[in-house]
């Protein structure tokens, strides 16, 4: 599991958490690490079990060398017990990355936010200077001996002021890992035991919890069963008789090492071997999934439903299941019979036929495509998981073939969606095995090629149209030219008409003025010329 | 120098600690099954009462005391807080009041003896600031001395304040008129006002007389382990 302390974003949270975060958090926590007070939000969120990582990754911490704080107005804080004088760069103090903002001279926003009493000028004694005095003294005191957990009482004994405010500052610093933060305690993966004791106990900081729980841990995990017959610890299996409140180890049971009056049939076998613990039977897993679906996060009820497994084990097993478990929302298999789409009959029939031969393990692995909005798809997905991988592949291929036989007159989009549907269906199946992926790819490729063919057709047609348009345009141009020519000829004709008219006129003149032919002829000549 | 007579006729003020911040000194001295727990700290009475329980639990856990202490501590704190609050509604006389404050405490290996005058009228006074400066000036290295000094001052101021409430009540009941305020506290407040008159009378100067220097000088002693043990044994005997 990953690290325990994750901060909510500094706007806490988170807490902070935090602070992610927040703080926790944002981090308002009356004791974030104590998960109680409401004054500060916890920047730390309890680690939620996620997909298991191979190695636990520690929260990134930054290490800063101890700086000597500037001369403050505090009383000199050399501890009374003889510690070697700490040189400034000699030791290294670990500070979690979400508390990077800390600086001796400055006050950060989150400090103002989480401890507003010092900054709202309501009380004369509570001002930023006093806050810095408290904060710096506490941090300095802790850093003088970072391996030792600084208790609040130690801190407040050395600070002048009212204990309520000091406590709030102390809690704030502790929540943000500036005090009592030892990375060694955090680097080891947080066990479930530690987490439980952390949330239960009010120990300050993560360093306290693992130490406290180390005693409690072994007690919780190993419930040593001692045989009432031979007084030895039962290891592999024990036989418990509830009637007479006896617990016998296997050897005693076989040997008949029990009291008179107790029948061998009164005993029931109780497995306590570690191997058995690790193996979850199919039935138990199914119970677990059902229970989780019904009860969600109520692990107590889940454990009761599963029967025979503690809450811890249920959670452990749940997170170990494949990822698909998270989308656990499929309808009961009984309802499937009623809702069949005729288009998908082939798929359904194939699935039904083979359902008898389905192996149990497939049922456990649900597909991610349990989309509530598309119940048919969900059922198809479910059915495909019931069926084996090969069968599902064959069914998918048949479906694709039938679809490809569909008339080409169907619109391209319809085909596309169908192809996509088959694609999706195939995708469901493919999630179970690699073999089905080829079928889906084949269908996809076919659909693509058909699309391309249609596109080419359209292009051709379109190009034909453009040719015709070009022809028309040429003709138009030609006609225009002809028109022009006609105009020209018409004009020429006009001119010739005019000339004829002129000739006629001159002829008239010629006739009417015959005596004066010489002059007139000359004139005419001149005129006509 | 005429004593400023006008200050004698100040109207009574609601009870509060005559310091800048209204904090209550809380002293704990609990014994259960042979285990003795002594502590003294300052508490802010405006904190919610839930704080008391939280503080008690925290202290017991930090000091690894048996859990029986939790209820005892909480109840002790509560009772002292209640006592403080009972004074709160009442009037307090705030005439000219300069009281001597005596420090006589032992914190770990440091012994402190001191005496000084404190003006009760000064509602801006800050015992914490005084303590901080005290430790810094005298070069006290033990960080626990500061809070102890502040606490001692506060405790004494608290006593004086409660006395003044009682005296104000009494004087109002017994005598009427302003004159009553003038003279009654003079007799009941431990002669502080009298000193003032003597000190600042026209005959004397402000500078302290030489013979009184030793009285008012702070003494800081660092004890060795044996002396500490001896003193502790004596205290235990006195306690029993």
UniProtKB/TrEMBL annotation, chain A:
Record keyword Zinc present: no
Region Disordered: start-end pairs: 1-88, 190-220
A Gene Ontology molecular function term of the record: DNA binding
Biased composition (Basic and acidic residues): 190-201
Domain of life: Eukaryota
Biased composition (Low complexity): 60-70
UniProt main location, coarse: nucleus
GO terms for cellular component: nucleus
Phylogenetic classification of the source organism: Eukaryota, Viridiplantae, Streptophyta, Embryophyta, Tracheophyta
SMART domains noted in UniProt: SANT
Keywords from the named record: Developmental protein, DNA-binding, Nucleus, Transcription, Transcription regulation
Bias-annotated ranges (Pro residues): 43-59
Classification via Pfam families: Myb_DNA-binding (PF00249), SWIRM (PF04433), SWIRM-assoc_1 (PF16495)
Residue intervals of the HTH myb-type domain: 277-314
Protein name: SWI/SNF complex subunit SWI3B
Sequence ranges assigned to domain SANT in this UniProt record: 275-326
Subcellular locations according to the entry: Nucleus
CDD domains associated with the record: SANT (cd00167)
Organism: Carya illinoinensis (Pecan)
Domain Myb-like: 277-322
UniProt-listed InterPro entries: Myb_dom, SANT/Myb, SANT_dom, SMARCC_C, SWIRM
Domain SWIRM residue range list: 93-190
Automatic annotation (TrEMBL), chain B:
GO biological process: chromatin remodeling
Stated family: Belongs to the SNF5 family.
InterPro entries (alphabetical): SNF5 (IPR006939)
Keywords linked to the UniProt accession: Nucleus, Transcription, Transcription regulation
UniProt GO cellular component terms: nuclear chromosome
Name listed for the protein in its UniProt record: Bushy growth protein
Subcellular localization, as worded in the UniProt entry: Nucleus
Chief location category: nucleus
PANTHER family: SNF5 (PTHR10019)
């Amino acid at each position: 599991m990953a690290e325990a302390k994750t901060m909510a974003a500094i706007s806490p949270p988170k807490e902070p958490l935090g602070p992610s975060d927040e703080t926790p958090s944002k981090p308002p926590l009356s004791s974030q690490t104590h998960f109680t007070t409401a004054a500060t939000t916890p920047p730390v969120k309890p680690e939620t079990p996620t997909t298991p990582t191979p190695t636990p990754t520690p929260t990134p911490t930054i290490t800063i060398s101890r700086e000597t704080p500037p001369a403050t107005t505090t009383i000199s804080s050399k501890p009374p017990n003889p510690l070697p004088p700490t040189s400034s760069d000699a030791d290294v103090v670990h500070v979690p990355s979400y508390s990077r903002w800390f600086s001796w001279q400055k006050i950060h926003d989150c400090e103002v936010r989480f401890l507003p009493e010092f900054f709202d000028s309501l009380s004369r004694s509570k001002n930023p200077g006093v806050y810095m005095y408290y904060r710096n003294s506490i941090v300095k005191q802790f850093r003088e001996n970072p391996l030792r957990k600084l208790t609040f009482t130690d801190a407040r004994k050395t600070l002048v002021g009212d204990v309520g405010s000091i406590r709030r500052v102390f809690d704030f610093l502790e929540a943000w890992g500036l005090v009592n933060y030892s990375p060694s305690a955090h680097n080891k993966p947080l066990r479930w035991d530690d987490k439980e004791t952390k949330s239960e106990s009010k120990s300050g900081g993560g360093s306290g919890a693992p130490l406290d729980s180390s005693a409690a841990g072994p007690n919780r995990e190993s419930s040593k069963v001692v045989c009432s017959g031979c007084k030895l610890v039962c290891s592999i299996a024990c036989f418990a008789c509830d009637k007479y409140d006896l617990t016998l180890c296997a050897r005693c049971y076989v040997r008949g090492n029990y009291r008179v009056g107790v029948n061998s049939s009164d005993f029931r076998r109780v497995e306590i071997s570690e191997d058995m613990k690790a193996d979850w039977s199919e039935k138990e897993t199914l119970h677990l999934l059902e229970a989780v679906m019904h009860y969600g996060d109520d692990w107590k009820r889940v454990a009761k439903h599963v029967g025979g497994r503690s809450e811890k084990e249920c959670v452990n097993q749940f997170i170990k299941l494949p990822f698909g478990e998270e989308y656990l929302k499929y309808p009961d298999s009984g309802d499937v019979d009623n809702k069949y789409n005729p288009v998908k009959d082939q798929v359904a029939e194939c699935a039904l036929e083979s359902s008898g031969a389905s192996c149990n393990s497939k049922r456990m692995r649900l597909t991610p495509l349990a989309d509530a909005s598309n119940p048919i798809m969900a059922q198809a997905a479910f059915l495909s998981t019931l069926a084996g991988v090969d069968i599902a592949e064959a069914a998918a291929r048949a479906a694709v073939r039938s679809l490809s036989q569909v008339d080409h007159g169907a619109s391209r989009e319809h085909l596309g969606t169908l192809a996509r549907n088959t694609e999706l269906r195939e995708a469901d199946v493919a999630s179970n095995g690699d073999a089905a992926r080829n079928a889906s790819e084949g269908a996809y490729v076919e659909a693509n090629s058909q699309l391309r063919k249609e596109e080419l057709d359209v292009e051709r047609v379109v190009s034909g149209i453009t040719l015709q348009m070009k022809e028309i345009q040429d003709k138009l141009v030609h006609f225009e030219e002809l028109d022009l020519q006609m105009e020209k000829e018409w004009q020429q004709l006009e001119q010739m008409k005019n000339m004829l008219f002129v000739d006629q006129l001159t002829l008239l003149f010629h006739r009417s003025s015959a005596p004066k032919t010489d002059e007139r002829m000359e004139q005419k000549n001149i005129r006509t010329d | 120098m005429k004593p400023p007579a006008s200050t004698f006729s100040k109207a009574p003020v609601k009870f509060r600690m005559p310091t800048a911040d209204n904090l209550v000194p809380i002293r704990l001295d609990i014994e259960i099954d042979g285990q003795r727990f002594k502590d003294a700290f300052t508490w802010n009475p405006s904190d919610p009462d839930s704080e008391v329980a939280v503080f008690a639990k925290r202290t017991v856990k930090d000091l690894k005391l048996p859990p029986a202490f939790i209820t005892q501590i909480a109840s002790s704190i509560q009772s002292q807080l209640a006592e403080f609050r009972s004074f709160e509604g009442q009037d307090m006389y705030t005439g000219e009041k300069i009281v001597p404050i005596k420090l006589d405490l032992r914190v770990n290996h440091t012994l402190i003896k001191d005496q000084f005058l404190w003006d009760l009228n000064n509602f801006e006074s800050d015992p914490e600031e005084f303590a901080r400066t005290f430790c810094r000036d005298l070069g006290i290295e033990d960080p626990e001395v500061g809070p102890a000094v502040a606490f001692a001052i506060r405790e004494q101021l608290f006593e004086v304040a409660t006395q003044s409430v009682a005296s104000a009540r009494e004087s109002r009941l017994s005598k009427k008129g302003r004159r009553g305020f003038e003279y009654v506290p003079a007799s009941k407040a431990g002669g502080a006002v009298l000193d003032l008159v003597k000190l600042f009378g026209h005959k004397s100067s402000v500078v302290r007389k030489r013979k009184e220097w030793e009285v008012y000088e702070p003494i800081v002693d660092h004890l060795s382990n044996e002396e500490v043990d001896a003193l502790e044994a004596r205290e235990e005997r006195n306690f029993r």
